[in-house]
Structures are given as C-alpha cells and as structure tokens.
Write a structure and sequence with these properties.
Length: 933
C-alpha cells in the first residue's frame, strides 16, 4: 500500500474515454488545434445511488474482458484529530488484512481471481482501494469490497493491528532513509500552522502510531467507512443494467454510517520562514513553497499551467535560463499541486556543483519577478495545455490502476459531486489566458515563500519509536456476520494482437500490432547496445550518449526540440536495459507525421554540441553523486560487480563511473553513436490505431534511407564467462551512519538459459519472493513486521540470468532478517517445497491475469520487444495459460533447485555499521566492510 502526498488535478495520463481525433496533421509540420483535441474527450458514464447512500458510477468499455473496481472513501489525513496522525493510512493497511468472511490476507483472494492494477493509497483527502478484475470475477470482487466495507471489524484483532503498525513504521523508515526524505515534514509543518488540517503528512508520527489502540481503529472505521461516505466506480466490460443488481446485492444491506464532512481548510498567511537542512545529498537544493487554493478553485487551472510554463515543461523558463543557458543549476522544477481544500505551489532548483547558491537564489527571484510582471505568452500556454491534454488522451486505454478512467470519475464525484469534472478541467486548460495566469500568480505567489535549503552534510539521528503505548484489551472484535462467498464464472482467454511485419529499404525490420482503443501511436526504436555495450573502463558512456540525443539535432537546439514535442503533444524519451538502448516516441496519431519528422531528426542527426555535452555531463555526475549517497543507489552500484565480476558486461555501476564520465570526450560520444545507434543495429516496434499499410510508407520516408556510417564497424559485446558461484556466503557491509533501515541485497549468477523454457523456474521464484504472498514477504512483512516489503527476482538478459533478493529492513533486525531469509530459501530448496495451495495460487493468478496484464498498448509493446530479445514466438503470451496449467509441484521444485544455491549468495548490507556489524558477526559468515563505489 502506498500513501500519497501529491494528488495532481488529473493524475498523469488519467484515462478519459474514447474519442475521435481530428484528421492527421500534415507532414509539413502542422499540429492538430488544441480545442479540437479537447472537445471529443469523453468518458460516458451513468450514476446511481443506493438507499444507504453509496454512490455508484459506471463506465462501459468493452475492449477487454476486465472491469476496474475502485472504492474511494471521503476521508484522509486532513480529517485526523490531534494525537491520531497516520490513522487513515494505518487503517488502509488493516483493510488488506482480512474481513469477516474472507479472513486471510486480501491479496490471497485477489490472486485467486486474477486481479491486476491493485493497491490502496491514502492522501490528505481520501483513501482508495482498487483492482482490475476479469469480468468472470466481478461478482466476487464486489463481494470482497463489500465485506471489508460492511463486515470488517470482526476480523481486526490486536495481533493484526500490532503487525501493521510495524509495517507502516517501516514504510516510514524506508521513505525517511532516502536522501531528502525528511524535507516533507518540515515543509508541511511550517507551511501550514499547528491545527491546520494539512499540517502533518499522511504517514503520521511514530508516537501517534504507537498510541493507536484497537478501540481507536474500530471507532475510525465506524465514523468514516460507511457506504454514504464512499464512491464506487465500475469501469470496463459492464453497463449500468448489469451493475445495479450486483451492487444492490452485495452493498445494499450495509448500514449507513455517520456523515463525514471533510475538514475545511483555508490558505494560511505566508510567514516567509527560511529553514536550512542537511542530508546525504550531492548538491544544494533550493525550494520555495507557497500555499494556494484547492483543486475546485477557479484559479487552479491558471496556477497549474503557469507552473508548467515556469518550470514544468522541458522548455520551461527556469530550464531554459538556469539549466541550458546560464548553467547555474542541474535541475529545476515548478508546479502547482492542488489538494481538495488547499494546495502547494513549489519552485525548486538543484544548484550545479561549484556554483554559489546565492547566485541561484538571486536568479530565481529575478525570473519569478519577470514572469509575474509580464506573464506567459499564448504560445507557452498552448504548449502547456496541449501537453496536459495529450497526456490525458494517451492514458485512455486503462480502465483502472493509479491513473485510469476510474480514477478520473471517482475523483470528480468525490470532490466535485460530478464524475464529469475532468472534462470541465480540460475545458479550463484550453481557455486559460496569459492575463489569468498573471493575476493568479500576483495574488498567491508575491508573498514571501517558505524557503528550504537542503545542503550536503550529516542528517540528524532518527528518533526510533519506544514501542506500542496503547492500552491492550480494549476494543474486543464483534462477532462476525456470516455471508456466502459467490463463485467465479468462466474466465476469458487472452486475445493477444496479431503481430505483422514489414521491412524498410535499408533492411530495418518493423514489428507491428494494432490497438484501436485510442488514437495514439507508440513506437520504440531499439538498438542492440544497452548498458552491456559499455567497456569495463567506460561505464556510463551509453547513458551519456542517450542523454544527449534530445539536446540538439539537425538545425534544432535543445530548447526547440522540447518546444516542438510540446506543440505536438508528443514525447520522445530514451531508456536502456542490460541489452538494449531504446528511443521511444509516443504521439497522437493526428500529429504522427510531424512527430515522426522530429524523431527522424533526433535519432539520425544528433549534434552532440560541446556546450550541451558539458551541461549533460554535470547532470550525470550529480546523479552519480546522488546514487553514491542513497542506500538503494549504493547497493545498485555495488552488487552487479560482486556477482558478475568487475569486467563482465553486466557488472554495471548504476549511472556510471564518475571518473569515466568526467573523462569522456565528444569523440567518445560520437564514436559510441556511430558504432551502436545505427540502422543496421536497430529494430522498430510499433503499436498504433493506424493500420500497418498506412504506417509503413511514413516509416520508409523517415528511416528507410538511413545508412550506417561509412568505415565504422558495428559494435560487438565481449561476454567473458561469469565467475564461479561461491560455495559459502560472504557479507559485504557499506556504512551509512544513522540510517534507520538497512538495505539487504543477496545475489548470484544462475545457470538458467534465458532462451529456454523458464516458466517453472519463475514460478518457483513467485513462491519464494516474487509477489506479495511470497514466503519471504509474508515472513518479514506480514508476520514479523520488520520490513515494508521484500522481493526476489530473476533478471533475464540475453547473456545470462542473475538472481537477487532485496530486503529493506529496520536496522535493529538486520542480522535476524538475513537469518530468516536464509531459512526461507533453504526450506524451499530443501524439504519444504512448493505446496498444493501455492501451486494453485500461482497458476490461477498467472492465467487469470493475462487479459488485464495486456490491456494497454504499452504492455503489448513491451511484450513484443521481450519476445524479440529472447527469441520467443509471436504468440508466446497466448501460450502462457497452457504452460502454467501444465506445472506441477515437483517440476517447480526441481527447476528452482537447479537454478539457485542457498550457499551461493553474495550478501550486501547498506546501513549503520555501528548498529549492524555486531548483528552480522553473529551469523557466522565472513563480513567485509567496503566503501561505496
């Protein structure tokens, strides 16, 4: 479960329905006009209400046999009384620990029915629970949600409360342990005065969590979780006629609860306070924050778009001035973050190392003053609004999850009493004028802000809880109410799209799948390079080269490339895996032609200008320095070389070696590009609503005549043999003083063939650590409460398969956690193999989730690329159901035992050595203290 501090107005990529976009823009570069993009964006829906007050919103979308089930309760951390901070979030956790008729962990039941995109979150303003389920399991999903809405308290015990209290406190430690993780507490407690509903964050305080009694949480449920305080959204393969009797059947008997009137909150007066903090950060970060009105205020849209123009867009004023031109900062941002009642506007700059922070402060003041005095241009506002609308359109496929159609409908109904509120916001974006932005900024952003200066240095020691202080034996659970659990129906099989192919004149292969739910084209241009293309003494060259691709190409500057993407509602991004370097275009199909023109320029004609190289180098070095100070980053930089050996292509060093990145010349960058990022080393993958016959000529025009550089040989990777797996474990320890948590990583190289049949091996990992109900997560999180989450996974790459266990745990349980992990691994690989229940659960989950897993074009694109990388057939995803149904316990046990060795792990611990090393010494393994890389 996740608590959310930031709730944006539309949420990134919020899906808003089906639409028909205007005719495609011309190849000469015209973009479809903003009003025409907005006017047809819809989520058709119907609303009804039960007699007990439950509001239900239904949206029909028949593209896949799945339904998003999303329940939003009108209560969040702003509604917590003094002394009970963190209750809303703590209760969110308890809602996953079983109800009166489903007494086990909630994830046990969602796994059985094949739920995807499932979670729960807590913000200042609401608590929500969501899952996307196969249509055949909808009735059971409604039963499950109704059981925890109306029939929960009989299953909430003191033992469960104590366990989840520990889990939440470890979630807090995990967030606090990140560099800069403590800033949020200073921000909210100083921006909003004591007694203000937004004075504290949703995670709450350790002391208040310790003081929570069973009677307290029972009262919280009774006061806030009634049906009349909730919104239920059903979006997907369903209509209102189908939904109404099912909702009445399972929710109708639940009694109304007290009416929760969300806490009112006004915009407080500015204090102009300045706070200086120190932490494990690589550079000074300056932030200025103002309180602003909430999301329903008439000026919110102007503040949001103004924030984008000032520091949210890639072409923003702050980016162009402080990062690109004057090179005073390595990163900047500005954004409005409206909550229900109030919001925040924040401007932030990370000072470039070697620059006087006072100079950046001065320039921030001057840029802000100029922006308020003159306002944005109409062109800037148009780009900002187009970016917002395009992000909305591109999320149209997803019915649920963190940002699907159900989110947009629920948010509008809960906060504005209007499920179509999203549409009003889009209309507002299209109508905002420069004068409105200027007026809003003058009203709210001319007062002295809260300033926080985060400097490199030692952070204060954490204040650990003293243990539960709540009275025991109060709040006896009531007797349960017996209800019959409904069965599930017949699950639909996955219908994976047919893969079609074309070949361009220069031999580049095009792999294509059609998805027509949204008018969007997503294209990935993949190169056989990746992190493994870096030589051992040049770690970071691939990343630096990709980082420069968009920073000037052809006759376009970095600024012009950013502006053109925003005008088109397009996004060009780069990414890398161990084996592949990828440039991805996400475009509105109406603007595909000019978007492809831009992609062609960026990929084929990068300029690698010296000034841009130095700027991007400084950003890369700051990112490396940040990794070197973050416990998770430290682990990521060290464990690959410990497992693979320092010279192996997969022995990556996070974002790269600082020494190597400092030394790279422009010739190195050009050399990498010419050896690796070339047409004879590339493959194209496309998912679009447009047919292949329409796409192929457009791709041919841009990429079919692209040729490899003359006289430059294509790059090759040198895969030496991985080192032999250890026969006895060794523990390596990196000291991070005062760390409230230890990051534990255990890794080893396996003999698994990445191109072989690895279903049984991966199934064994699911049992050990591959999902929430795995043995190690159940043990360390749900039973012992020492961690917020533990996982394990196979890293399947072209040249080999690694295996890793990752466990962030509270510092005082580091040694115990390693012992517990060892015990779980040894048991599974020894005499306590996969059980019948585990087999049934993993088979049903992997089979029944298939339609939901491949609901979106992005998921289809990723599957196509994975199939190509690992030599799998086009219908591999459709074969999965039969392959999982053919599994048996003995086959899984044998496969996992052949893949990993409990004595073959190399252990890495990143934590406070003073607390941790005495614990490690007791384990009987050699312990070596090493430095961060």
């Amino acid at each position: 479960m996740r608590h959310s501090v930031r709730l944006s107005l539309l949420l990134a990529g919020a899906s808003l329905g089906t639409l028909a976009l205007p005719a495609a823009a011309s190849a000469q570069g015209g973009a479809a006009p903003l009003p025409s993009l907005v006017k047809d964006v819809k989520i058709p829906n119907q609303t009804f209400k039960l007699q007990n007050g439950l509001t239900v919103v239904v949206h029909e979308d028949r593209k896949a046999p799945v339904v998003a089930v999303s329940v939003w309760y009108n209560v969040g951390s702003k509604d917590e009384p003094q002394g009970k901070t963190g209750f809303a979030h703590l209760f969110e956790h308890l809602m996953f620990n079983g109800s009166e008729n489903l007494p086990d962990d909630y994830f046990k039941y969602t796994t059985q029915i094949g739920a995807t995109d499932l979670n729960g979150t807590t913000s200042f303003d609401r608590t929500n629970y969501f899952q996307t389920v196969p249509k055949a399991a909808l009735e059971k999903a409604l039963f499950m949600e109704s059981d925890r809405m109306g029939y929960l308290l009989g299953a909430v015990t003191q033992e469960k409360l104590d366990n989840q209290r520990g889990v939440v406190q470890n979630e807090k430690r995990q967030g606090d342990n990140r560099p800069g993780g403590l800033v949020q507490y200073e921000l909210f407690s100083n921006l909003f005065p004591a007694g203000h509903p937004y004075h504290h964050t949703p995670i709450g305080s350790m002391a208040d969590l310790d003081a929570a009694s069973l009677a307290d949480v029972q009262k919280w449920f009774i006061d806030n979780y009634g049906p009349n305080n909730a919104v239920l959204v059903l979006a997907g393969d369903i209509n209102t006629a189908e939904a109404r009797p099912l909702v009445q059947k399972y929710f109708g008997a639940i009694k109304r609860g007290p009416v929760n009137t969300p806490a009112m909150a006004s915009v407080p007066a500015a204090t102009g306070k300045t706070i200086v903090m120190k932490d494990r950060v690589p550079a000074v970060t300056l932030s200025r924050t103002w309180a602003i009105p909430g999301m329903l205020d008439k000026q919110t849209a102007a503040l949001e778009l103004g924030g984008s123009v000032l520091g949210g867009l890639a072409s923003s004023r702050l980016d162009n001035t402080l990062v690109r031109n004057e090179k005073l900062a390595v990163s900047v941002s500005a954004s409005a973050n409206p909550q229900h009642r109030v919001g925040l506007f924040q401007v932030q700059a990370t000072v470039r190392p070697g620059v006087d922070p006072a100079q950046v402060e001065k320039r921030l003041d001057e840029i802000m003053a100029d922006f308020i005095a003159k306002g944005p241009t109409r062109e800037e506002l148009s780009r900002a609004a187009t970016t917002e609308v395009a992000g909305t359109i591109k999320g149209l496929e997803q019915v649920g999850g963190f940002g699907g159609k159900a989110v947009a409908l629920a948010q509008g109904q809960l906060y504005a009493n209007d499920p179509n509120w999203f549409r009003k916001q889009l209309d507002e974006y299209a109508r905002v004028t420069p004068a409105q932005v200027q007026a809003a900024f003058r009203q709210y952003l001319t007062a002295a802000p809260l300033k926080i200066r985060l400097e490199p240095g030692e952070r204060p020691a954490p204040v650990e809880p003293k243990g539960p202080t709540a009275q025991k034996g109060v709040g006896t659970p009531p007797p349960p109410t017996k209800r019959d659990v409904p069965p599930v129906g017949n699950f639909a099989a996955l219908d994976f799209p047919t893969i079609q192919r074309a070949t361009l004149s220069n031999g580049m292969r095009v792999n294509y799948a059609q998805r027509t739910a949204v008018p969007v084209t997503t294209m990935a241009l993949t190169f056989d390079a990746g992190l493994a293309a870096d030589a051992a003494n040049q770690r970071g060259l691939q990343g630096l080269t990709l980082g420069l691709i968009e920073e000037g190409a052809g006759n376009l500057t970095s600024q012009q490339i950013a502006e053109r993407q925003e005008e088109l509602g397009a996004s060009i991004s780069t990414s890398s895996s161990l084996d592949r370097s990828t440039v991805t275009l996400s475009a509105l199909s109406a603007n595909l032609a000019p978007s492809l023109d831009l992609l062609e320029t960026v990929v084929e004609q990068p300029t690698f200008a010296p000034a841009e190289l130095e700027r991007v180098r400084a950003q890369a070095l700051t990112g490396i320095a940040a990794q070197q100070r973050d416990p998770n980053g430290i682990a990521a930089r060290i464990i690959p070389s410990l497992v693979w050996g320092a010279n192996h292509p997969y022995a990556i060093v996070g974002n790269g070696s600082a020494d190597a990145v400092k030394a790279f010349t422009r010739n190195d960058i050009v050399g990498f590009q010419q050896k690796w990022l070339r047409p004879d080393n590339a493959e194209i993958f496309v998912v679009s609503n447009l047919p292949l016959s329409q796409l192929t000529p457009q791709l041919e025009r841009r990429f079919g005549t692209w040729t490899a550089p003359a006289g430059v040989a294509k790059g090759t990777k040198q895969f030496a043999a991985a080192p032999a797996r250890p026969t006895t474990p060794t523990i390596y320890l990196v000291n991070v003083p005062s760390a409230p948590q230890s990051v534990i990583v255990a890794g080893q190289v396996t003999g698994v063939d990445p191109r072989g049949d690895i279903i049984a091996t991966q199934a064994g990992n699911e049992v050990l650590g591959g999902n929430f109900l795995s043995r190690i997560n159940t043990d360390l999180r749900e039973t012992k409460g020492w961690s917020y989450g533990v996982r394990s996974s196979f890293d399947v790459a072209q040249g080999g398969v690694g295996y890793a266990i990752t466990a962030p745990v509270q510092a005082d349980r580091t040694g115990d956690s390693i012992a517990a992990l060892n015990s779980q691994v040894t048991d599974l690989l020894g005499g306590k193999g996969v059980t019948t229940d585990e087999l049934e659960r993993l088979v049903s989950n992997n089979v029944n989730t298939l339609p939901g897993r491949f609901e979106t074009s992005q998921a289809v694109l990723a599957a196509m690329m994975s199939n190509s990388l690992l030599g799998r057939p086009d219908d591999y995803q459709e074969q999965l159901a039969a392959r999982y149904r053919a599994l048996n316990q003995g086959g899984i046990d044998t496969a996992l035992r052949g893949a990993i060795d409990p004595k073959g792990f190399t252990w890495l611990v990143v934590g406070d050595a003073a607390k941790v090393k005495p614990q490690l010494d007791k384990l009987g393994y050699p312990v070596q203290v090493i430095e961060a890389k």
